[in-house]
């Protein structure tokens, strides 16, 4: 649901940009509590994985497709503050280099896709995991529901922004019904992808799933037919006698998966317009759409200029996108972590004075 330039007027776009900038600023501070030496590179991996999976449009109805937004997945895996930063990095990369999502609409896209989905999904996930039995199955089911609800919620917020600052005069009731209706279907796909990914990580490394931390009882995993406590998901340093498990293998596996999805599987993605594009065409809200400011980018539309072979062009663009996202994202998250360490050291020095 990448909003292009021209859908929303300038005042509302600016207001959404201010809101998005505030959310990012708050998230930069909040992410200091979520990131450490293990999770900083994992957050970069999550951003790259979301970039890759967003290239995989799946059919949801006749002539309509959808793709992962990723807010629920990122929030559950790395925490809500870090998730907002992950989605912001992805949307920034897509807008600047791939001409996907308007540049003047960047604030709208971060608000709708990066903030609303994270807040709704993480709040609902924590509510459900607090009410249901502390098992992997319950956590996976909670991830499914949270992801499902987050997508139509973002569509509803887009409709609200369009009602306030839409550039065409269309009955808002028709836009709301069409947007929420199609995004409920897209939400099912989002929920399946999120639940499968969260369930897979819980199966192999439950200690890396931020969303199951702080539960009143330990998460239970079924091993050889019996329920056992999952490894404690804690951010506190472990004793020297029991060092924290390395995340290198997990990180490499995740990055290779992202490269395969973006570089190979993306060729088989649905070419149908996504939910917003379909609604815009059907309802006429795209009458004043503007050409993207990065339309001349060599990576525009997820292809590499001057490469005629569609499979090679799209695959190479996907690999470049994943590489750029993991580098930029990891760099930002390492910087946030370093800022956290510097603040901690400064506080200790002040106490010792």
TrEMBL record:
Example of a GO biological process term: transition metal ion transport
Record membrane topology: Multi-pass membrane protein
The organism's place on the tree of life at top rank: Bacteria
Compartment list: Cell membrane
UniProt domain PDGLE: residue ranges: 248-338
Transmembrane segments: 7-28, 40-60, 72-97, 103-128, 140-164, 176-204, 250-269, 316-336
Alphabetically ordered keywords of this record: Cell membrane, Membrane, Transmembrane, Transmembrane helix, Transport
Cellular component aspect of the GO annotation: plasma membrane
Coiled coil spans: none
InterPro entries the record matches: CbiM/NikMN, PDGLE_dom
Xref: PANTHER family: METAL TRANSPORT PROTEIN HI_1621-RELATED (PTHR34229:SF1)
Name of the protein described by the UniProt record: PDGLE domain-containing protein
Species in which this protein is naturally found: Streptomyces microflavus (Streptomyces lipmanii)
């Amino acid at each position: 649901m990448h909003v292009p330039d021209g859908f929303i007027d300038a005042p509302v776009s600016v207001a959404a940009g201010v809101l998005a900038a505030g959310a990012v600023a708050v998230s930069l501070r909040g992410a200091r509590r979520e990131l450490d030496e293990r999770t900083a590179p994992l957050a970069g991996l999550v951003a790259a994985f979301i970039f890759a999976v967003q290239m995989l449009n799946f059919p949801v109805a006749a002539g309509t497709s959808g793709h992962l937004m990723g807010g629920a997945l990122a929030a559950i895996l790395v925490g809500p503050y870090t998730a907002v930063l992950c989605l912001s990095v992805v949307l920034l990369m897509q807008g600047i280099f791939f001409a996907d999502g308007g540049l003047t609409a960047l604030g709208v896209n971060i608000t709708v896709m990066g903030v609303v989905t994270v807040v709704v999904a993480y709040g609902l996930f924590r509510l459900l995991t607090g009410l249901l039995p502390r098992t992997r199955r319950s956590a996976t089911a909670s991830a499914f529901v949270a992801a499902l609800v987050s997508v139509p919620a973002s569509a509803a917020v887009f409709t609200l922004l369009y009602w306030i600052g839409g550039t065409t005069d269309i009955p808002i009731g028709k836009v709301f019904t069409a947007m929420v209706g199609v995004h409920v279907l897209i939400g099912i796909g989002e929920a399946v992808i999120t639940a499968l990914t969260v369930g897979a990580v819980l199966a192999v490394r439950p200690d890396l799933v931020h969303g199951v931390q702080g539960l009143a009882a330990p998460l239970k995993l079924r091993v050889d037919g019996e329920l056992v406590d999952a490894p404690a998901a804690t951010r506190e340093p472990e004793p020297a006698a029991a060092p924290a498990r390395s995340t290198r293998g997990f990180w490499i596996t995740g990055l290779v998966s992202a490269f395969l999805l973006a570089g190979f599987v993306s060729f088989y993605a649905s070419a149908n317009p996504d939910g917003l594009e379909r609604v815009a065409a059907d309802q006429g809200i795209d009458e004043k759409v503007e050409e993207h400011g990065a339309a001349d980018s060599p990576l525009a539309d997820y292809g590499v200029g001057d490469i005629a072979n569609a499979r090679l062009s799209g695959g190479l663009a996907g690999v470049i996108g994943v590489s750029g996202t993991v580098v930029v994202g990891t760099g930002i998250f390492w910087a946030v972590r370093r800022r956290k360490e510097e603040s901690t050291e400064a506080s200790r020095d002040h106490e010792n004075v």
